[in-house]
Design a protein that fits this description.
A hairpin with a 2-residue loop joins strand 11 and strand 12. It is built from five helices and 18 strands.
């Protein structure tokens, strides 16, 4: 459809957001017309997992929209938890292949783009469209939105918030409050290993909940295995995931809630995956700030520059 101002609406390429599996926390823009997904490196999207077939499924752009087609995979392809040989995709559809889960995301409305070269067009005849810099996907979803879309939007909002955090208190607060909201949790803790011990970076506890400290054996299992765990102790159900840095558990995200299922294990793992780097960077930054303060105090410097060369003296 073309508007009176000469603006042509055209479909924006959808995105694929990984919620769990080796690619958790990553976002991919679909190719122009088609693309295969599987374990082999020659696919458009390669998933390094033995639970995924060499060529597992394929995206295809048809006249009526984007379709997904299973490529005779060993474990099959699920869309919204239902086996799918071939079907049309809708915004918010949840796709599972082996241990990897994705959400298919499209814009809620077409984005207009010019049909002519602006340099050759009279600007007074153009109808212009604009959108706020913050994507609508970063806003809370409608109440009737499917669970997969609600989780996807919550993950995107959390990811954006973590990138703007400047200290561990702010980051920890954003992380724990987001997880409390996503899982309707009772207690959430973020732990970090440093200086030979374990530090509690942040916690969030629902009003009226009184329990003992997090069992040390649970954290010990995280440090040893480096894997996410789902369990229960009496009437308390918990899930915990490692904060991996360079493949090693440097911290842990621990959650207690009344209703925790295997799908929540995937969600907490995804949150821990893209939170780990943000936590690590802030912890390193805080260490550098402390070292810099101690160095300046020891040197008795009145300025922030270090060095006695002629060049440095000219600077300060």
């Amino acid at each position: 459809m073309t508007s009176a101002g000469g603006i042509l609406n055209s479909q924006v390429h959808p995105k694929l957001i990984a919620l769990s599996g080796p690619l958790a926390g990553s976002t991919f823009t679909l190719p122009e017309k088609e693309g295969t997904v599987g374990r082999a490196p020659y696919n458009w999207l390669s998933i390094p997992s033995s639970t995924v077939s060499r060529q597992h499924f394929q995206f295809e752009l048809a006249s009526e929209g984007w379709k997904i087609r299973d490529l005779d995979s060993h474990n099959g392809t699920l869309v919204n938890d239902a086996p799918a040989r071939e079907r049309l995709l809708n915004n918010g559809d949840q796709i599972r292949a082996g241990d990897s889960e994705f959400v298919f995301v499209t814009e809620e409305e077409d984005l207009p783009r010019p049909s002519a070269n602006l340099a050759d067009t009279d600007l007074h005849t153009l109808t212009l469209y604009s959108r706020e810099a913050e994507s609508t996907l970063l806003q809370p979803p409608p109440e009737q939105a499917p669970p997969a879309e609600q989780r996807m939007r919550a993950l995107l909002r959390l990811s954006a918030a973590l990138q703007s955090a400047l200290d561990r208190k702010t980051l920890g607060g954003q992380l724990t409050s987001s997880v409390m909201e996503m899982l309707d949790a009772e207690r959430v803790f973020v732990f970090w290993r440093e200086h030979g011990g374990v530090t509690e970076i942040a916690s969030a506890i629902r009003e009226g909940i009184h329990r003992a400290a997090v069992p040390g054996t649970v954290l010990e299992m995280i440090w040893v295995s480096g894997k996410s765990l789902l369990g229960e102790a009496g009437t308390v159900r918990w899930v915990t995931a490692p904060l991996l840095v360079s493949g090693r558990p440097s911290g842990a995200l621990y959650v207690e809630a009344a209703k925790l299922l295997e799908e929540h294990l995937d969600l907490v793992t995804a949150v821990a995956t893209f939170s780990a780097l943000a936590v690590d960077q802030l912890m390193r930054l805080e260490d550098l700030r402390v070292d810099n303060k101690l160095l300046r105090e020891a040197a008795g410097l009145a300025h922030e520059m270090i060095g006695e060369s002629a060049v440095m003296k000219r600077i300060y």
